[in-house]
Amino acid sequence: MTYYCYSCHGTEGQGGAADPLIRDVRKPTGGNxxxxxSKVISDQDLIEIHAYLRSIPPSPAAKTLPLLQQ
Length: 70
Fold this sequence. Notes:
Layout: H1 6-9, H2 18-26, H3 43-55
């Protein structure tokens, strides 16, 4: 919330390892996300954000939702 990542990625973003996350935050590709230097957000904060994101369970498969089977 502090760094406004949720404005593009939502509050329950899913991701991979912390190293690619740090690299992508420092030098994003795709053109829409600005780079965030270590002066703005530390590597440790990014590692903690990554740990939080990994703690969120994946969404259930659509085929397991009864409402979608009607």
